[in-house]
Amino acid sequence: MKRTTITFAPLFAVISASFLCSGVLGQIVAEHQGSNVPDDGEQTTRWVREAAPSGVIEGPAGDEKTPAWRIEQFQEGGPMAYDFVPSEEQHQAAEERGWKLSVKLRVDEEGIGPNFCVCAYYAAPEQDIQYTLSFGATAKGEPIVALNTDAADADQKFVVTGGTRSEFHLYELIYDPVVKLAKLVIDGKEFAEGIRPDSNPNKVSRIGWGSRHTHATGAGEYNLVRFEILD
Asked: How large is the C-alpha radius of gyration of the chain?
């Protein structure tokens, strides 16, 4: 497994709950912040909840400094995720200008995943790409992030050495439209570059986060999920 050591600085911020959906260049397309209910029904365009029939609980978490929304899959039976479907115009602008998927979270326990019970993702049908960030923690409590769908691929799996799963960490996946590859930045420090996308044979269109596994367990507390098109 590839290991990289980085030095952490506190990443606490008091943020209010909001959801934004806007046009294209230089805009936030979809965002979740803090402990607000992701599909509260008060927004014209909002996250759509894909609810599991059983085995998943969710609700506010974190504290005053770092409020969050917790999704816990405690037994087989998921998925339980929140999705937003971008427009064709937004997908095209993201491909031409580049995009960034930001996720600030913490994983609830040691020795789990990454198994897609805690994840965030972007899929564009016409561009035939999918990117997935899946999160877990070692038995020592060090955060793990896996890229794309093959979490067993050693070259695509990274242990955040020196970090702890009890702290919130900011993960940013940034897509470069020139080389058509992405890089991974964790807490402001670059971890990996040249990250290839998966193909998208089912032509899925979505930005999302939560649990997308039906046969595993895990819990994550999401302080921030944001997808934005770059200038």
From this structure: 16
